[in-house]
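INFO batch 0412 | record 1 of 1 | parsing
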Amino acid sequence: MTRYGLVVHPARDVSEPRERLEAWAQRNDVEVVALGERLEGHGELPLGEAEDCTLVVAIGGDGTILGGARLAAAAPSCPPVLGLAFGSLGILAGVGVADADSALDRFAAGDWSALPVDGLRVTDEEGATAVALNDVAVVRKGAGQVKASVHVDGELYVRTAGDGVVVSTALGSSAYGMAAGGPILTPGTRALCVTPLAMHGGSAPPLVVGAGAALRIEITRSFSGRRVELDGQTTEIAGHLLDLRLEPEHVQVVSFADAEGVLSGLRRRGIITDSPRVVAHDVRVAGE
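INFO prediction complete | emitting tokens
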């Protein structure tokens, strides 16, 4: 029997979209299992493993879908991930739960394409390693500043003192990196973006590096400390010498031909907005 795995938002009541998924699965002879930590949103579903699933369905926002993607990427079979937005549509959560049946029908019929999502692997000098999908951020832990040197293929780019440094994939470039003043990399751009955070003096514009580049961040030891975050979550990586490399096509997300484009989605959500002068001109012309 075909098996789908379900990942749910850890706090929201997703019983209605889960029941809709279960009803669709019953009609189509598909078994649904709960993936990851047992949560209230899983209802009475049995626990399962991503490696045994044809598809991972994530109900929630982009954060929930990132969690599902991490589970999928860790499985030898690396099943694709279908994000169902429970709330506003996001970069990964491109299908609303109201359209869940249609999306599931299209997936079962093969009317979909795999959108490859690159990973960003970080390894410290002790060998501790992990993979992010959005970004890796080195940020100050308390008072004081983070001092770090950024090297690309052995060449020094900048020595920075400030709140830290964030390294983003194309997927994550519209998240922390953009909020820090970095550029947006459109889907399919195989590159990394390095953005200093609140740098105290000096000059270091956000830097885009190619997919094959070897990026190294050397952190100066200090009394105030710092932490390393992957996709916004604190990690156990505690070294002071971090090597970062892009891992192409780390996981696949289900996409449909009529899906909203990333830039259109950012505009719809008000993350990208037009110049007020342009908007004022439109209003004036419309009133003539």
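INFO post-check: The mean pLDDT is 93.
INFO record closed
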